[in-house]
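Entry:
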Amino acid sequence: MALLPGDPVPKFTLPGTAVPRFTFDSAAGRYLVVAFVRADGAEAAADVIRARPRTFDDVQASAFIVVVGEDRERARRCDVIPGLRFLFDAEGEAAGLYGAETDCWLLIDPALHLLAMERSDQAERMADQVAGLAPPSSHGGFEGQAPVLMTPRIFEPEFCKALIEAYRRQGGQPSGVMRQFGEETRLVMSPDFKRRSDVILEDGDLRKGLVARLARRLTPQIEKAFAFAPTRIERYLVARYDAETGGFFRPHRDNTTVATRHRRFAVSINLNEDYDGGDLRFPEFGMRTYRPPPGGACVFSCSILHEATAVTRGERFAFLPFVHDEAAEKVRRENEGALAPVAG
């Protein structure tokens, strides 16, 4: 079916000049111009963007030149960061998702809905139009509000302290990210994408205390806010982001691999407050940040793009489980064989 203005655009992952896999929907939160072109038109398309550095700054807008088919000049393509990136669609799969010819320019809003589709003879006009659009955070005519649940007093102060002490006793280990490689889901280290240290709690009494508090205080709130009744907890994980490493987690979704597609809601419960930065942000819904008080939770769908901003002072501790239900547990069990063993 042909895309029409207002339609959500398809997601895709393609190799870029600097990364083997670029997930296009991770760029949400700003206007996106996407040009599907053949190799012989790639530099001309890039010149349209290069001529407008104040517009294509990765804040107001970003541009992607998607080269469809064989590109013998691929090694010579140069991104301009911020603002311009080349992607390579050798088999035409992404272009096919969009029903796009190789002479096609798209303008996409910060929530990943189509605004306009034009041929390349209108590219200059489209690029000029972007500068006059509303700020990304109010592209719909109002300030965006992420569909999240913020709820206080899930953990009492003494319990927060006990979880932090458990982290310090066990000692945190660098945290990786899940990536899909063919049919296999792997945990890989990516310090340019995520800097965090984690502990999986081993103390049985602490785990029982966590289950009791979540069941009594958080589950009823999730049921009320999302009409969803979680029955399963995945991972008893205490995380630490610190200013020394500039701890952060770039925009991502939590259910994009085979081994994680069962995840339904992410829970972020802050355990302390003496730090700067380290807040949650949901780029598809604006630049506002979210920070629950110590013991309070932020709950959101695992399908939503989100990030943890860099900690600039001190250290942030948080309890970060995922929750799902029995239907999702069946999916987890069916797919658990896709998760590659962790080396070492």
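The chain has two domains: 13-138, 149-338.
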